[in-house]
Amino acid sequence: MDDDPDLMMSCIASTIASVPPSPKKPWNQRILLGVWAIKYLEPCATHLPSFSIAYVGFSTTYARFFLTTKTPNVAFNMLFWSLQMFLIGPRFIVDAHAQARAVYAWTVNDEQNMRWCIEHGLDGVITDNVNKFIGVMEAWKKGSREVNVSWTSYVFSVWVWMLTMTIGWWYRFHKEKTLRKKRAPDAQVIE
Length: 191
Fold this sequence. Notes:
Layout: H1 5-17, E1 32-35, H2 41-47, E2 52-57, H3 60-63, E3 74-79, H4 80-84, H5 88-98, E4 103-106, H6 111-119, E5 124-125, H7 130-141, H8 151-183
Parallel strand pairs: 1-2, 2-3, 3-4, 4-5
């Protein structure tokens, strides 16, 4: 999070430019830029303007900062458990889709959670078991649409939500404290 966004994006742009693209499919159709903070949006637009962007994160609360008219080309690659959180996650999916934004979930390995993603219209799923997901998709298309997500799964979603809120609070507090120290002039003792 402390990397210089402009430097990082310019290095990524020069690295991509150093490799000739395929004549059939240019790099901007093959690479999706994953960003984890708002400060990376402007450098992406400056150095890689034709590339698609996805916010990668675990907080739908923070992801909503990307859900504005100022960032129309940003998709969302979210931790599955944050999307499953009662009301908050499904509402985020609906709001993102209302603005024609793609929503992906990571890492979904449980069959019932895969079904949940399909039922909620996610645009993509990142999984360690592609064959299992393909099987779930094929069964879904044939009419096997029962979704039985366990209460344990929902409880875990609440735990993840509480953890992300705590980490977010701690990070903001720690970051603000660090910034205050950097801005404050050296204290002088006057007697």
